Amino acid sequence: MIPRIYIPGDSGALALGAEKVAKAIAGELAERGIEAKIVRNGSRGAYFLEPMVEVATANGRVAYGPVKPSDVKSLFDGGFLTGGHHKRWLGSPDKIPFFAKQTRLTFARCGVTDPLSLESYQKHGGVNGLTNALALTPADIVAQVTESGLRGRGGAGFPTGIKWKTVLDTAGDRKYIVCNADEGDSGTFADRMIMEGDPFVLIEGMTIAGIATGATKGFVYVRSEYPHAVAVMNKAVEVARKAGVLGASVLGSPYAFDMEIRVGAGAYVCGEETALLDSLEGKRGMVRAKPPLPAHKGLFGKPTVINNVISLASVPVIMDKGAAYYKDFGMGRSRGTIPIQIAGNVKYAGLFEAAFGMTLGEIVDEIGGGTATGRPVKAVQVGGPLGAYFPRALFDTPFDYEAFAAKDGLIGHAGIVVFDDTADMLKQARFAMEFCAIESCGKCTPCRIGSTRGVETIDRIVAGIEPEKNLALVTDLCNTMKFGSLCALGGFTPYPVMSSITHFPDDFKPAPVRVAAE
Ligand SMILES: Cc1cc2nc3c(=O)[nH]c(=O)nc-3n(C[C@H](O)[C@H](O)[C@H](O)COP(=O)(O)O)c2cc1C
Ligand code: SF4
Questions:
Q1: Which residues, in sequence order, are CB contacts of 406 under 8 Å at separation 6+?
Q2: For residues 368-398, b (16+ Cβ closer than 10 Å) or e, as one string?
Q3: What percentage of the chain has pLDDT greater than the value 70?
Q4: Ligand nearest to the CA of 288
Q5: Which listed ligand is nearest to 446 at the C-alpha?
Q6: Ligand 2 mean position to 491 CA, how many Å?
Q7: 436-439, long-range: CB within 8 Å, 24+ apart, which pairs?
Q8: What integer pLDDT is reported at residue 512 of this predicted model?
Q9: CA of 478 to the centre of ligand 2 (A)
Q10: What spacing in Å lies between the alpha carbon of 271 and ligand 1's midpoint?
């Protein structure tokens, strides 16, 4: 059997040197006259081990990492093609604690299969969900998705089945499925990982959404900063079309569904669903007032499902294994699994898929291993730039939509960014206001004007000008933005600001006046 070597082509792994490692391995194979197949897989998500190279042996896959080009010669000398020992030897990937502790439903194939091989996808359970869906009525598919308890993973946590039902029940000569792959939140990369590592699962999820709602056309709106994801998705769509998964007759059924990949132009607000629709229609991305909901009047005025990548990519496993299976994971009203993205100043950064319910402390301290600097964790921002900063005192909060909301926070797209005790929360609060001022679409006053006034007011606190009065003004301004903004950009910017003020009051006190030594 020809040896098979897996070297991630995922852009996170590439940023860590995977391409150089791939070249070194190909060169070494040529020099030694060894015939082997190199598969450019996705990443399994343990970025602290990337580039993680795997070989398929008679006893299963054996991983090595993080591999440097300078390791390659000694890897061959040590017999790595048959799983030989080496200082980078990690053993079976399934037994590496970071992976062994996960519950991989949505990411089951990511890093395992060849992303562009439909055969490899099917061998690992791909297309089963779509096949099952084709045997049901659209209403029954929608009922399954509703029953699974799946909620939107883009941020708002809205029940996916209810959104689909609205589109199914709305008449339209044309309907659309739009996949939100703008992934603008800080510290998030789950959408990118899926698109690069298992693109067919997103294609399958979108196709099921189309069949369930009567939509025949889909668009994936990908941020321009993701060129690798765009390239992989485009190729995967071609493969799916050729194989009859997409096209005029999906898998030989009477249903038609096809899709296109579109690239954004680099605005955070274009991740907001209605601004995204404007952008997709070729206009400047401005938030639309609701109603009408996109489900009634969305892309080009037609009934439209807009879902995040992970929401759509979670549908195939639901349709494959059943709503009850998926629903069995999780807690409260947060059902199934969530790919938590651990980033920032953290020892073990990466993607960790788990059932809802782990505490923030478990995620940061046990899975993330604390800070990379080895200093105490001061704060964790959960849910992107609009998410609250959590202090250690709130680390017992379980990962659950309602539990986070009860602590004035949000899960968002499940990105967590860790900060050590050198972080200045006054600066972080200013950053949140500044971010809002820069990214505001300008449609409503509380956000457009409020964020700029917010920066100015925080600057006065920094300068020690009437700090108490200005702190009260920031609080007042946050209330105006929270309750008066048209969308969550202005409406949620108060979360990082107010959580900084509430949980880290010392950082908002005037700096001690230094008295020059006599
Ligand atoms: C300013 C702003 C940015 C957003 N960015 C994203 C994004 O990058 N990706 C995403 O899926 N949802 C984003 N959302 C949420 C979307 O508006 C919308 O709720 C989501 O696409 C719906 O899909 P879901 O129900 O599957 O989560 C953003 C919302 C706001 C207010
Ligand atoms: S809150 Fe900000 S981004 Fe949202 S509509 Fe208003 S101005 Fe635009």
A1: none
A2: bebbbeeeebbbbbbbbbbbbbbbbebbebb
A3: 98
A4: 2
A5: 2
A6: 8
A7: 436/489, 436/490, 436/493, 439/267, 439/268, 439/269, 439/489
A8: 55
A9: 14
A10: 5
CB 292 within 8 A of CB 304: no
The number of the ligand 2 atom at minimal distance from the alpha carbon of 445 is: 7
pLDDT score, position 99: 98
CA 425, CA 214: separation in Å to the nearest integer?
48
69 neighbors 24 (Cβ within 8 angstroms): yes
Helix 494-503 to helix 425-439 angle (10° resolution) is: 170
Locate 427 and state its tokens: 């600066």
Atom of ligand 2 nearest to the CA of 442: 7
C-alpha 254 – ligand 2 centre gap (Å): 42
Mean pLDDT for the chain overall: 96
pTM of the shown model: 0.97
Q: Which residue, chain included where needed, has tokens 């400047």?
A: 284
Please tell me the number of the ligand nearest to residue 410's CA: 1
Q: How far is the CA of 356 from the centre of ligand 2 (A)?
A: 30
Closest CA to 36 of 46, 26, 47: 26
pLDDT at position 509 is 85
pLDDT-flagged residues of the chain (< 70): 511-518
Q: Which protein residue has the closest C-alpha to ligand 1 atom 25?
A: 152
